[in-house]
Design goal:
Layout (H helix, E strand, L loop, with lengths): L4 H23 L8 H25 L5 H26 L14
Helix pairs in contact: 1-3, 2-3
Length: 105
């Protein structure tokens, strides 16, 4: 039931790789030059897909936690990138109104 030393080492290595990737993606987000709203929506979809797969894995594979742990790490990875993209999207200044358009007060 518990993880062997090799499985634990592999899990920790996978977690370190995901943490490094998320750090690089989050730090380079302002320099990406892409539509951050679309990027945020895509990462939300992947977070939801990973979460559904994790819940299905936990429900249908009783007693084996190895794959559920990996899926849970992917949920955390995509969720952290989505949350960072959401925060970055909120910090961006809104686009100014078109010139000559009446502004509502």
């Amino acid at each position: 039931m518990w993880l062997s030393n090799a499985e634990l080492a592999g899990t920790l290595l996978f977690a370190l790789i995901l943490a490094g990737l998320s750090f690089l993606i989050i730090r380079s987000m302002p320099k990406m030059g892409l539509n951050i709203t679309a990027f945020r929506k895509r990462t939300l979809v992947w977070t939801q897909v990973a979460l559904v797969l994790t819940v299905l894995q936990l429900n249908f594979k009783a007693g084996d936690w190895r794959f559920a742990i990996i899926l849970g790490m992917i949920v955390l990875f995509t969720g952290s990138i989505w949350l960072s993209a959401r925060r970055y999207d909120q910090l961006l200044p809104t686009a100014p109104d078109a010139e000559g358009a009446p502004s509502e007060q």
